[in-house]
Amino acid sequence: MRIAVLAAAKSIHTIKWVKAFAKNGHVVKLFSLPDQKAPPGVLDDIRVHYLHRGGVAGYWLCARELKKQLLQFRPDVLNVHYASGYGTLGRLCGIKPVLLSVWGSDVYDFPNAGQINKRMLIKNLEAATAIASTSYAMAEQVRRVHLTDKKIYITPFGVDTSVFCRCGEPPKDRITIGIVKALEPKYGVEYLIRAFSLFKNRMIKENKMPPNGIKLEIYGDGSLLPSLKALAHELNIEEEVQFHGAVPHAYVPRIMSSFDIFCAPSVEDSESFGVAAVEAMACEVPVVVSDVDGFKEVVINNETGFIVTRRDPVLLANKLFTLAVSPELRYTMGQAGRRHVQDCYEWADCVRKMENALTETAMSSLMNRRNS
Questions:
Q1: Shared-domain flag, residues 184 and 222
Q2: Are 340 and 351 found together in one domain?
Q3: For the chain, which has fewer Cβ within 10 Å, the N-terminal or C-terminal residue?
Q4: Which one, of 309, 353, 360, 302, lies nearest residue 332 by Cα?
Q5: Do 340 and 358 sit in the same domain of this protein?
Q6: What tens digit of pLDDT does each residue of 120-171 get?
Q7: Residue 68 exposure: Cα atoms within 13 Å on the Cβ side
Q8: pTM of the predicted structure, to 2 decimals
Q9: Is residue 292 part of a domain?
Q10: Would residue 282 count as lying in a domain?
């Protein structure tokens, strides 16, 4: 199958999809705005065309160039990722059939920014041949935004469990809690830091502090870094909290394996799949997450981890304590988490689901043309 992908080339999700398609024998070409280029060398084995105009204007001004390029490539199907920006560009170029993959903030946050945004999103959804969503929860959000009879395929963004697996053990004389997330408001890292302070106090009070203490390891960069560092200082936990900055995705399995507990207290439902929790569970790490849509779908509460009310550092701290004082519970939940990922989110299975969605989209369009 000839697959054209319209998406941000710098996104690890885009990179994984196009590489998987190519590995499975499809002819793939990626189209992206020029200010969203992949890191050097990452996509050397993939045909990539960077459009001439970047920024928000690029979604409107590159339609003619994109159409020309697509007519030359002659794809069986165009897979557009992100329903707002690239969804607009895909609609304006007029090439069909289109499988429109929604990501999260494009259908949760974007339409709530005003009626113009909502109308634009609805036009993009209507113009698509079919829609793909990484979760059932986000598929329902699409229907809340615009009640449609279009096919919505569920295409989870899974993980390769041969890569994401336990590779090393955290120190037994210390409890390490960790997160790998951008330091932006929607991911709620502030609540993790506040919870960690409460957790520390309780560990001391109940004489449960391990010989080498406790650590909070934060991997990621973003606009909140200065204020989060200031908060750690204010709470007198700066010695226990370490900020490591952003890391290449290839390092994540080893980083996850260094955690005793993974914690992700996101505060917005646009965290619509929870791939970070899936990665942690694949590495046999129990998770404590908030009750946003994505985590509620991928985490089995009280079995692979704990789900707590968002923006509640007290509840978060209590669950961290429960896991910290029970190595047996951490092991049991870690094992259950890996089995759950292998059963539901194995990468090869997720790729097959996406390939099926692309094939059916292409075939349905072909049948419609023949019948018209």
A1: yes
A2: no
A3: C
A4: 302
A5: no
A6: 999 999 999 999 999 999 999 999 999 888 999 999 999 999 999 999 889 9
A7: 7
A8: 0.91
A9: yes
A10: yes
Q: In the chain, how many domains are there? A: 2
Asked whether the beta carbons of 323 and 330 are under 8 A apart, the reply is: yes
What gap in Å lies between CA 129 and CA 96, rounded to an integer? 7
Same domain? 336 vs 360 = no
pLDDT tens track for 308-359: 999 999 999 999 999 999 999 999 999 999 999 999 999 999 999 999 999 9
Whether 163 maps to a domain, the answer reads no
With respect to residue 169, please indicate whether it lies within any of the assigned structural domains: no
CATH number at residue 94: 3.40.50.2000
